[in-house]
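Hi everyone,

Forwarding the result from last night's run.
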Amino acid sequence: MNSRIHNLVERARRLAPAEQAALLSALHDMVAPPDPAWEAAWVNESLDRLAAYGRRELEAVDSDEAMAQLRKKHGLE
């Protein structure tokens, strides 16, 4: 890591967590710009899932439980 990058990382470490998250998001968008078509498709999928949940066609799973299941499935326990 060159000194400029090292200095930037050290400055980022001093930011509040919310500021670090905003910086990370901005850097991600810089190297992997959002795809409007993908984002629109994900919005539609999210709305479809929410509607299915509202019609009781889809069951909700607690996020901690879902992550535990995924860790177990992929041998990451």
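The mean pLDDT is 95.

Cheers,
N.
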